[in-house]
Amino acid sequence: MMAKNVASRNILCAAAVVLAGFPTGNRSVSADELEACQPSPRVETPYPAVPSVIGEQLFNQMIAWIAMNTSYDLLATYNDPPTISFCQVGDVIAYEQSDLLVDAVLLAAFDREKRHIFLTYPWSPLNYFDQSVLLHELIHDVQLQNRDWECAGAPELEAYHLQDKWLYEHNIKHQFNWTMIRRLSACSDDSEAR
What is the pTM assigned to this prediction? Predict the structure, then answer.
């Protein structure tokens, strides 16, 4: 449908340009009609929602797991999932109104304003650890849909605890740096509320 509308617009614009160049005695082409033929500003293609990338079954399993392991309302995330894209180590991504260099330590990131998840390749929906990384980011979306946090890092401790629980249930032991995670989650006295 969109391609047909674009083609129709291009044909009408071509006709308007021809008519503008050849006055026929009939009504002339107005400046507004010619202006409508100017190139449209570039529209960014939206990223797909999480379920369309990882599959409905895995998405539903993750949402159900979060529902059983938290007291959050998951309706908003389930009905309107965040979007998702992939990046690679060395990429620079537009993240929360700045540029972020994807280094080897960054497995994923969640852009709160855009409700967008970045996953770093290699990532596989068949790998339980990789699933836990996505689960962690989905938890952030759920957290932010349900409450305000004292600072940007505050939701991290809960998200890591839930990710660790997911891994434990799948017989995977991961050595999270809990000291660093607690430090990341602590809000200073002068931090902004989010």
Answer: 0.72
